[in-house]
Amino acid sequence: MRVLIIAAAIVLSGCSSLNPMSWFTPYQMDIPQGNYVTQDAVAKLKPGMTRSQVRFLLGTPLLTDAFHSNRWDYKYRLVRAGKPAEDKLLTVFFDGDAMTRVEGEALPAERAILPADASAPAQQSKAQ
């Protein structure tokens, strides 16, 4: 009888659904890495802007390639517990000191951008 109980305990200990340690998992932090570039910042870019103006809007690029000095890469990676990593890459191209184009994708804006006339009612009520 003891042999059956010991055998059953060994068999059941192998089941992950019955293992109490599978119920308790340690906390895993979200790990953001790279440049957090939003769509509203990218919308402010205009062709012909200088490198310093682009750096002011987007920040210092994470990657500057010595072999491709006419291009800046803004890479962003977010690792969340139990989810696939989220990767974004935005590339800004230059011709000399002037920006020519932007390729890739940026992150969504943190807050919704209000239309230009949305603040008009608030300004009118102050004037009255």
Helix-strand blueprint:
Elements: H1 2-13, E1 31-34, H2 39-43, H3 51-58, E2 63-64, E3 71-79, E4 86-95, E5 98-104, H4 120-127
Antiparallel strand pairs: 1-3, 2-3, 3-4, 4-5
In short:
The protein is 26% helix and 25% strand. The chain is α+β, with helices and mostly antiparallel strands and 128 residues long. It has a domain at 28-110: Beta-lactamase Inhibitory Protein, Chain:B, domain 1 (2-Layer Sandwich), CATH 3.30.1450.
How would you explain this protein's 3D organization?
Keywords: Cell outer membrane, Lipoprotein, Membrane, Palmitate, Signal. Residues 34-103 form the Outer membrane protein assembly factor BamE domain. InterPro entries: BamE, BamE-like, BamE_dom. The protein has helices at residues 2-13, 39-43, 51-58, 120-127; strands spanning 31-34, 63-64, 71-79, 86-95, 98-104. Strands 1, 2, 3, 4 and 5 form a five-stranded antiparallel sheet that branches. With 128 residues, it is an alpha+beta fold. The mean pLDDT is 80. It starts with a helix and ends with a helix. The protein has a domain at 28-110: Beta-lactamase Inhibitory Protein, Chain:B, domain 1 (2-Layer Sandwich), CATH 3.30.1450.
